Amino acid sequence: MSTGSHAGRPKSWIAVAIIFIGFAIGGVGLVMGPDWIVFGAGAAVTVIGGIIALAVDIMTDVVVDEPRQ
Asked: Which residues, at least 6 apart from 4, have a Cβ–Cβ distance to it below 8 Å?
């Protein structure tokens, strides 16, 4: 876990990048017509990224700061 920073671990950022790429592919698929096959491929990549995010336990990257006074 990253200490004292909100940066996260590299494997968590890779999962986020995969999710973003899937979202972008799906967006391109919607703009192109819509082309439902490309949109479906983007949705599948996004789901795969979500599964990877769960597998690398992305939620443990959260840093809880002390309350401000």
From this structure: 63
pTM for this predicted structure: 0.79
Secondary structure (3-state) at 8: coil
For 56-65, write each residue's pLDDT tens digit: 998 888 776 7
Q: Is the pLDDT of residue 26 over 60?
A: yes
Residue with tokens 């990549």: 45
Is 15 within the bounds of a domain? yes
7: Cβ contacts below 8 Å, ≥ 6 apart: none
Range of the domain at 44: 10-59
Is residue 50 included in any domain, yes or no? yes
Domain count, the chain: 1
In a domain, 39, yes or no: yes
Asked whether residue 3 is domain-assigned, the answer is no
Q: Under a CB-based contact definition with an 8 Å cutoff, are residues 22 and 51 in contact?
A: no
